[in-house]
TrEMBL record:
SMART domains: IBN_N. Its main location: nucleus. This is Importin N-terminal domain-containing protein. It is found in: Nucleus. It comes from the Eukaryota. Belongs to the importin beta family. It holds the Pfam family IBN_N. Gene3D superfamilies: Leucine-rich Repeat Variant. One of its GO terms (molecular function) is small GTPase binding. InterPro entries: ARM-like, ARM-type_fold, Exportin-1/Importin-b-like, Importin-beta_N, Importin_beta-like_NTR, TPR_TNPO3_IPO13_2nd, TPR_TNPO3_IPO13_4th. GO terms for cellular component: cytoplasm; nucleus.
Length: 724
């Protein structure tokens, strides 16, 4: 009794005291109490106590449910029967509520059934026991229905600390009782106000995937009740759950295949197809539309193999209808289907049963032709969907990031089915359409054009590098687009994505000057376009390096302006590394005699500030923040990594060694600076190899001496690179 009173007092403090520290202490005590053996009896007593308030009832029911789930083995074996009877009494006591308490008691009984074998439960197991209780207490049927609903769900609840073999046996016990359970539910259908609860329980039992013959289900009253509810004015959520589970049921691995399940499939599909018109019904509640869309998506995912044989093209049209819905949450339900359909249409494994290659190719082409129009429509729908929202600028940084990350892979599925060039042509028409609606109006909406370009960029890997019809027209359009930040960012990313095309296409060279101008504009705009432009600049120099060998002076001007930080460029230190790599790749394409001089010029913007810091004396060098030093060393590291001229890099490291040694000597304690410096030396060693001559010995001697004092892990790593 004393402990019961303490629990009540602690709950009163937790919910009603004004001092947070006191409430925290009460919460801590209650959590410790829940872990004790006494909690079993105390919570049971308080639940049976008519004077317990709602807060006490909720706490005690949750505690008892948790104890049964996780710590049932604490109890002696003879405690099971009194616990079962007590929980049964509580379920009857709280049949009118509170609902939270009744649900916790139901979960506790279900968890008890997971732990206790049917033969020990008595009465032929829990389902038979439930049937007998419902027959004896008609007024308690709603409470027992809730228990019947949660029972199969607990098979997959791994909070219940049951041993694996016991969990498997429990699943078998429930599967063997499925007929009894569906019999109870069928009998309850006669109580009209319980219909929704009955269907919810039926959906729960269907998740067990117990093999009820398709012909039995096709004529079952529960199935017909769910199907007829689809046509009611107010869509039943429970009916949708039942139909959804039936769809998954017919496609389950242990279902025997579509031919066995066809009686049920032929019953379900026409009924769901009748709902198609409601997808566009503006008077429909959004949740209802979402539920209908879910059924179509379930059919698509489950029957994709049937659909791929062109027998169910009407379902594809319905799924296009779902994909066209303005709400992303609804439209995206179909994306998995389009991906899986693409795999079946493209993969050779789908056709191996046909035997010879000619038959395989003919059948694949036939199927691709059937679905071509659907994927073409999908491209148009997705190009509209990736459009920036009107309120984009008002979104939080986190929401903006989420928006950028949820642009769609479904475009790639379409490109694989249609081919890159066909997809590109559709998207180019979308781009022209967007630009045409603008005319010469400077203040027109930039978002449709950006969306089309985003899609064009997304399929770049699937467009031939020698495509000569559409890409030249797109490249000619880019310089004339407005310099709006998000649009310019996507223009820069698109340029970078098609760098291989710029190198390989016959007209690619003629576009390079205008492309570089676009990238310079991007670097001068703001942080996001600048980052995109720097990344694109790197891609272009990587793929078109040979073409830039005669234009080094112009590239160096851009590079020096960016590195100095004094111009209009908005590049972060991290993004500036893309420019370092870009110029390094171009220098790699130069003859050896020209490469040395170019490498000197490339290193200069990084070397000069380091030399200035060293010239200010050892105190200044020792006190500088690491970032002010590593930003320059990281640039040198990238130069040594990407300039593939071993002798030129060996000469450069030999000239720079006095600077590196001064930093090693005075900042060996600073892990961040040492890691950056060792990385630069590592790349110099890897690129130059034996051309490094005496410098390599000096590096090894330096880091071996420093390791004895400072034990920096990066010294060991650099030593291993040198020995290699």
């Amino acid at each position: 009794m004393e402990l019961q009173n303490t629990v009540k007092q602690a709950l009163n403090v937790l919910y009603h005291h004004t001092d947070d520290a006191v409430r925290l202490e009460a919460d801590r005590w209650l959590q410790e109490f829940q872990g004790t053996l006494d909690a079993w009896q105390v919570c049971d007593n308080l639940l049976h106590d008519a004077s317990s308030n709602p807060e006490t009832l909720i706490f005690c029911s949750q505690t008892l449910r948790s104890k049964v789930q996780r710590y049932f083995e604490e109890l002696p074996s003879e405690a099971f029967r009194p616990l079962r009877d007590s929980l049964n009494t509580l379920l009857k006591t709280f049949h009118m509520g509170p609902p939270k308490v009744r649900t916790q008691i139901s979960l506790a009984i279900a968890a008890l059934a997971v732990h206790v074998p049917a033969e020990d439960w008595g009465d032929g197991g829990i389902v038979n026991w439930l049937r007998d209780e419902m027959n004896s207490h008609h007024e308690l049927i709603p409470s027992f229905l809730e228990l019947l609903t949660v029972l199969p769900e607990e098979v997959f609840n791994y909070k219940i600390a049951a041993r694996p073999n016991r969990r498997q046996k429990f699943e078998k016990e429930l599967s063997s009782a499925t007929e009894v359970a569906t019999g109870i539910l069928t009998a309850c259908l006669s109580i009209n106000e319980l219909k929704e609860q009955v269907l919810e329980a039926f959906a729960s039992w269907l998740r067990l995937r117990h093999r009820i013959p398709a012909s039995t289900l096709a004529s079952h009253p529960l199935v017909h009740t769910a199907l007829s509810s689809l046509n009611s004015d107010v869509l039943s959520e429970a009916s949708v759950n039942v139909i959804s589970e039936l769809i998954h049921y017919t496609a389950a691995r242990n279902s025997g295949g579509f031919s066995v399940q066809m009686p049920l499939i032929q019953l379900i599909v026409p009924q769901v197809m009748n709902l198609k018109a409601q997808l566009r019904d503006s008077s429909k509640d959004e949740e209802d539309v979402k539920a209908i869309a879910r059924l179509f998506a379930d059919m698509g995912d489950s029957y994709v193999e049937l659909i791929a044989t062109d027998e169910s093209i009407l379902i594809v049209h319905a799924l296009l209808e779902v994909a066209s819905h303005p709400e992303y949450d609804i439209a995206s339900m179909t994306f998995n289907f389009w991906h899986n359909l693409q795999i079946i249409l493209i993969e050779r494994d789908s056709y191996v049963s046909l035997g010879n290659e000619a038959a395989i190719e003919a059948e694949r082409n036939r199927r691709l032709q059937i679905f071509r129009a659907s994927y073409e429509s999908l491209v148009s729908l997705v190009s509209f969907r990736v459009q920036y929202p009107q309120d984009y600028s008002g979104l939080t940084k986190e929401d903006q990031k989420d928006f950028k990350q949820t642009r769609y892979d479904v475009l790639i599925d379409a490109a694989l089915v249609l081919g890159g060039e066909v997809t590109l042509k559709i998207l180019y028409m979308k781009l022209l359409e967007a630009l045409g609606s603008c005319g010469n109006n400077e203040s027109c909406d930039w978002r449709p054009a950006e969306a089309a370009l985003y899609c064009i960029r997304a399929i770049s890997d699937y467009v031939s590098s020698t495509e000569a019809e559409v890409m030249p027209q797109i490249m000619a359009l880019l310089p004339n687009l407005p310099h709006q930040p998000q649009l310019l960012q996507t223009v820069c990313l698109t340029v970078g994505a098609y760098s291989k095309w710029l190198d390989a296409a016959s007209s690619g060279l003629s576009f390079l000057p205008s492309v570089i101008d676009i990238l310079v504009s991007g670097m001068s705009m703001s942080e996001d376009p600048a980052a995109a432009a720097a990344s694109a600049f790197r891609n272009i120099c990587d793929d078109c390096g040979k073409k830039f060998c005669g234009s080094l002076d112009g590239l160096f001007q851009i590079y020096q302006r960016a590195m100095s930080g004094e111009g209009v460029f908005k590049l972060s230190a991290e993004d500036s590394l893309n420019l370092v790599e870009a110029l390094s790749m171009v220098i790699t394409e130069l003859p050896s005699d020209q490469a040395k001089k170019a490498l000197e010029a490339l290193c200069l913007p990084a070397v000069t500030p380091l030399q200035e810091i060293i010239n200010q004396g050892p105190i200044t060098l020792g006190q500088k923040p690491a970032r002010e030093i590593t930003v320059h060393i990281d640039r040198l590291a990238n130069i040594f990594r990407y300039v593939n001229h071993p002798e030129a890099v060996a000469d450069a490291i030999q000239r720079l060694w006095p600077i590196f040694k001064a930093i090693f000597d005075l900042r060996a304690w600073d892990m961040r600076t040492m890691e950056s410096l060792c990385r630069a030396c590592k790349h110099a060693v890897r690129t130059s190899k034996r051309f490094m001559g005496i410098t390599i010995g000096a590096i090894l001697e330096e880091i071996q001496g420093l390791y004895k004092q400072h034990h920096q892990p990066c010294f060991l790593y650099l030593s291993s690179e040198v020995i290699k």
